[in-house]
Amino acid sequence: xxxxxxxxxxxxxxxxxxxxxxxxxxxxxxxxxxxxxxxxxxxxxxxxxxxxxxxxxxxxxxxxxxxxxxxxxxxxxxxxxxxxxxxxxxxxxxxxxxxxxxxxxxxxxxxxxxxxxxxxxxx
Length: 123
Known about the structure:
- The chain has helices spanning about 35-45, 50-60, 60-85, 90-95, 100-120; strands at about 10-15, 20.
- It is mostly helical.
- Strand 1 (about 10-15) and strand 2 form a beta hairpin.
- It starts with 11 loop residues before the first strand and ends with a helix.
- Pfam families: TnpV (PF14198).
C-alpha cells in the first residue's frame, strides 16, 4: 500500500513561467459547519495554513469542521449545565429577576465561548 503523496497524481498547468497544480474540490453535500466550525476554519486559514491546505487537498476540511462543530455543541451543553449549577441560575431566578438571569446567562455564554476557543478552536 502506498502512503502519503505517492498515490496522488496531480496535473499541472503552465501559468507564465510557473507550473500551477490543477486542483478542484468535489462538491460537498454534507452538513455545513456552524459558528464553531467557521471559527476553526478562520483560525486554520490564518494561523495553521499548512494544515488548512492539507485538509483542502485531502478534501476533508468540511468533515473536520463539522466534527469540531458537533464536539463544541456537546461540550457547550455540558459546560452550560455545570456553570448554571455553579452560579445558581435557576428557572426560579428567571421568574423573579429576568434581567439578572439574562445577565448571568450572557456571562456564561461568553465564558463558554472562551473555553471552547481554548479547548477546540485554537488547537
